[in-house]
Amino acid sequence: MATASDIMTTEVVSISETATVRDALRALDELDVRHLPVVDERREVVGMLSARDLAARGRSQEALAQPVSEVMSADVIVVTPATAVTEIIDLMTENRIGAVPVVDNDSHLAGIVSYVDVLREAGKALSDEPSLSS
User: Fold this and answer.
1) What is the spatial distance between Cα 80 and Cα 99, in angstroms, rounded to a whole number?
2) What distance in Å separates the CA atoms of residue 123 and residue 54, rounded to the nearest whole number?
3) Domain-wise residue ranges, the chain
4) What is the pTM of this model?
5) Residues 50, 58: contact at Cβ < 8 Å?
6) Backbone torsions φ then ψ of 2, nearest 5 degrees
7) What SS3 class is residue 95?
8) FRET label pair with 113: which of 5, 15, 90, 128, CA 20 to 30 Å apart?
9) Which fold has domain 4-128?
10) What DSSP string runs through 4-53?
11) Per-residue pLDDT for the chain (134 aa), expressed as one digit of tens each?
């Protein structure tokens, strides 16, 4: 059974909880990603930002200057490298989220699993199945 460690992106970029919304928007745009884990000074996951969350905030100078900690989802759902992909799929669909941070035993960010990673894994699994028309 595949686990988070099998499909996660390990070169994940995170953003500090003290960064501004402007910084987060720039990072999302430059990296061409839709989700950013938010970490504290110990690199522990304290929240999650999505492009959708930030789009809802508007682009006023006041909104752009807000710290990420004021707009992030603080009730972030995290998984470990050993979490089964099927469990990750359940978490993502039940909570209507597009990504989950992967944390190590010390709660430090180790990676991220997004819906793209899950779909890529599903595509591999389906292409490995024998064809029913054979």
Assistant:
1) 13
2) 30
3) 4-128
4) 0.85
5) no
6) -70, 145
7) helix
8) 128
9) CBS-domain (3.10.580)
10) HHHH-BSS---EETTSBHHHHHHHHHHHT-SEEEEE-TT-BEEEEEEHHH
11) 899 999 999 998 999 999 999 999 999 999 999 999 999 998 899 999 988 878 777 778 888 899 999 999 999 999 999 999 999 999 999 999 999 999 999 889 999 999 999 999 988 888 876 655 54
